[in-house]
Design a protein that fits this description.
41% of the residues lie in helices and 17% in strands. By secondary structure, the protein is of the alpha/beta class. The chain has four domains: 120 residues, Serine Threonine Protein Phosphatase 5, Tetratricopeptide repeat (Alpha Horseshoe), CATH 1.25.40; 196 residues, Rossmann fold (3-Layer(aba) Sandwich); 160 residues, Glycogen Phosphorylase B (Rossmann fold); 150 residues, Sandwich (Jelly Rolls), CATH 2.60.120. The protein has a seven-stranded mixed beta sheet, with helices on both faces. β2 and β3 form a beta hairpin. α1 runs antiparallel to α2 and α14 packs across α25. The radius of gyration is 31 Å and the shape is flat.
């Protein structure tokens, strides 16, 4: 068909523009492209080309207008946002340029030009706003400084944050600070993307990004929670030493707080848990009635466990309500998991044996992070070229690796090495894994059939899932069991302990065995090995995507649940017990118990340092104690003080209650000891304010006001209360209340 006149004119104009562009005659090229666009206004590529020519000719404003038109045509193109950033930078609009480079990073977190420009523009980022919900990623950010590839809890946090980054403010807390800093979404997106793309912690791109994260964690803009701020904590930030004081200050400012409870393992299985971990978790658990408006639980089993523990350890405290949001998510943008094979590889062929491996070996480290999709392809150093069964988990004692080894020893005895598939452990080493190593060292024949990969990235894990016969998950205790979900996602049958939480996560296709029984586990496994058709049929029954839902749906449900809990009125703390010294320190107690709850409830607002064994320091200036009394008559408050090193000035004490005149007393800052104040009848709620000026400094230089060891409430004029108080202090100093 002969070319129309319009087509011919357009072609000639395009050729003229290209020739002028190649000759760097920018104005002439822009004019030719402009004429072409009047004939073909929807040609986005030439729209961008004309913008480039205008920019090179000294007209960044004209270029910006064209880039904006191209952005409207295809807003998901990261390159157009980079070009917009370049134009804005030339126009001197640094703040807007930084935002444009950030949008490019959100679309393609590993785009080198966008990262370079955004990093250089960090100081020009606009002041953050904490409108709407806040997602606390303190635990995840701290994880990245120690490991690159995420574990289960970190993966849930990261996927939820990735889904909510557009509608929630991201933040994190430094372990040595007691406030959050707003985490830029582009920085999080890059960290999240790189963490999934490889496991090499020395990869230059990863190290470079961590350097930016390190600088941000010390100097990023602070988050300022206020009335209506919802703080959702999807991780395990309770281990941070200043977390309680930060939450107390945020709630005093009107914020609401909802944590995600992944499990109660340190309290349910204390034997393998380190004492420090159990103590940290128990103390945090004790603060939930005080600092949480509600709790999200990852399973019905975890919610039931939470209720039982609250009723057992904190019976006098109102347990925050709980909503279940299961983390049964998958990433729809990832490679589509393959369909199950018609029959899995035969379990007893005369296979080529792998070379004898060390008892535990590190996975081969990739030279650099890659963005290529995972494919089975030819032999891979992480993928055995013989039939294997996969167990994905860190080598924590409760995960059941010893049980799996015992079952494999039974299989070797019954079927021989040729009839027993290789057992692959995929997961990091963990405290308490010594017995696993010892079991392998004591049984060389068993060790020869076991491979351990300690640092598999997402791509390696996908290959392992797709290449295995089926998976094991013999854990003694879980909150949900993410490896079970991942196995189902890849259409591989998981063989798991028949415990309540795993019965939930494995409901779409898992096979179950008696918890703790190596014999039953070996029997179930042997049944699958002996009947490949049965295994194939079980895999075929697994629903598409393992019955999982996109992470975006999980995140939306989680946010909706947190909002619902935040709207619920909070029950008040129970009144103070009369004539008992309420100790503000934890005394080294692991908890949970009511004394720790009370120690968290009595201090009010942000005027406090974290509790120590003996009590708590106030900050210089004002700090307050909330004292809910069970009576309206005259009251007596006894306060035990501890002076800080080098204390100067005075401590001014003001005891107040509605309906009574306030009582004021002063004490020399270095005096310490006990002071008592009495106030007339009034409303039950009392408030004691301590003003310390100028205070002192601890050995590490921390400025403090004064130390509060304990506080007690009595009825004024009741000698029996004073006698009981003295007896309780002398005879039962550590009574949990």
């Amino acid at each position: 068909m002969p070319e129309s006149r319009g087509d011919g004119d357009a072609g000639a104009l395009l050729a003229r523009g290209d020739a002028a562009r190649d000759a760097r005659r920018w104005a002439e090229a822009a004019e030719a492209y402009g004429a072409y666009l009047r004939l073909r206004p929807e040609d986005r590529g030439i729209l961008v080309q004309r913008g480039h020519c205008l920019k090179e000719d000294g007209d960044p404003g004209g270029a910006l207008n064209l880039y904006r038109r191209a952005e409207a045509m295809e807003p998901g193109d990261p390159d157009i946002h980079i070009q917009i950033g370049h134009a804005l930078k030339l126009l001197g609009r640094r703040e807007a340029a930084a935002e444009a480079y950030g949008r490019a990073l959100l679309l393609d977190p590993q785009e080198t030009a966008a990262w370079t420009e955004w990093r250089a523009a960090l100081s020009h980022l606009p002041a953050p706003r904490a409108d709407g919900p806040v997602l606390d990623l303190s635990d995840l950010v701290s994880w990245f400084f120690h490991r690159r590839a995420p574990s289960g809890i970190q993966r849930v946090q990261a996927e939820v944050a990735a889904a909510l980054a557009g509608q929630a403010t991201l933040c994190a807390m430094h372990p040595e600070e007691d406030g959050w800093r707003v985490l830029p979404a582009p920085l999080f997106r890059r960290l999240h993307d790189l963490s999934r793309a490889g496991a090499d912690a020395e990869d230059p791109a990863w190290r470079d990004t961590l350097e930016v994260l390190k600088a941000w964690r010390r100097s990023g803009p602070p988050l300022k929670p206020g009335p209506g701020t919802l703080i959702l904590t999807p991780g395990t930030a309770w281990w941070l030493p200043r977390y309680v004081t930060a939450l107390r200050a945020a709630r005093a400012a009107g914020a609401r707080h909802v944590p995600l409870l992944h499990d109660c393992g340190p309290l349910v299985l204390p034997d393998p848990a380190a004492p420090e971990l159990r103590a940290e978790f128990g103390r945090w658990f004790s603060t939930l009635p005080v600092l949480a408006d509600g709790v999200l639980a990852v399973s019905h089993a975890t919610a039931a466990e939470y209720r039982r523990l609250m009723a057992r350890h904190l019976p006098d405290w109102p347990a925050p309500p709980v909503i279940v949001v299961t983390p049964d998510g998958y990433d729809p943008s990832a490679e589509e998991p393959g369909e199950p094979p018609a029959a899995p590889p035969a379990p007893n062929p005369p296979v080529r044996r792998l070379a004898r491996l060390p008892i535990l070996r590190e996975a081969a480290r990739p030279a650099a992070a890659t963005r290529a999709p995972a494919t089975r392809g030819p032999a891979h150093p992480d993928l055995p070229d013989e039939p294997f069964v996969l167990l994905v988990s860190s080598l924590e004692p409760r995960k059941g690796h010893l049980l799996a080894l015992a079952a494999w020893r039974m299989l070797l005895d019954r079927r021989g090495a040729a009839g027993t598939p290789r057992l692959v452990f995929a997961g990091r080493r963990a405290p308490g894994d010594g017995p696993v190593l010892a079991a392998l060292a004591a049984d060389p024949a068993l060790a020869a059939r076991v491979t351990a990969l300690h640092a598999p990235d997402d791509a390696a894990l996908a290959r392992l899932y797709r290449g295995c016969l089926f998976t094991l998950y013999p854990s003694r205790h879980e909150g949900w069991g993410l490896p079970v979900s991942e196995s189902l996602l890849h259409r591989r049958v998981p063989v798991v302990s028949e415990i309540p939480s795993l019965m939930e996560s494995g409901r779409n296709g898992a096979l179950f065995f008696t918890p703790g029984s190596a014999d039953d586990l070996a029997t179930v496994v042997e049944g699958l090995l002996a009947d490949p058709a049965r295994l194939a049929a079980a895999a075929a029954r697994i629903p598409r995507h393992g019955g999982l839902r996109p992470w975006a749906e999980v995140a939306e449900e989680m946010l909706a649940g947190a909002r619902r809990l935040a709207r619920e009125p909070q029950d008040p703390a129970p009144p103070l017990p009369l004539a008992h010294a309420i100790r503000l320190g934890h005394g080294g107690s692991p908890g949970p118990h009511g004394g720790l709850a009370r120690a968290a409830a009595v201090p009010e607002g942000g005027g406090w340092h974290p509790a120590e064994e003996w009590g708590a320091w106030t900050r210089p200036g004002r700090a307050a104690l909330s004292l809910p009394a069970p009576f309206e008559g005259p009251a007596r408050v006894a306060l035990a003080l501890r002076p800080p090193p080098g204390a100067e000035g005075v401590v001014r004490l003001t005891l107040a209650r509605s309906g009574a005149a306030a009582v004021v007393a002063e004490r020399r800052a270095g005096a310490g000891g006990e002071v008592a104040l009495e106030i007339g009848p009034g409303e039950p709620g009392l408030r004691l304010v301590l003003e310390s000026t100028p205070g002192g400094r601890l050995e590490d230089g921390t400025p403090v006001g004064t130390g509060v060891v304990s506080v007690a409430l009595m009825r004024a004029g009741e000698p029996g209360d004073r006698v009981a108080y003295l007896e309780n202090r002398l005879l039962v100093p550590a009574l949990p209340l």
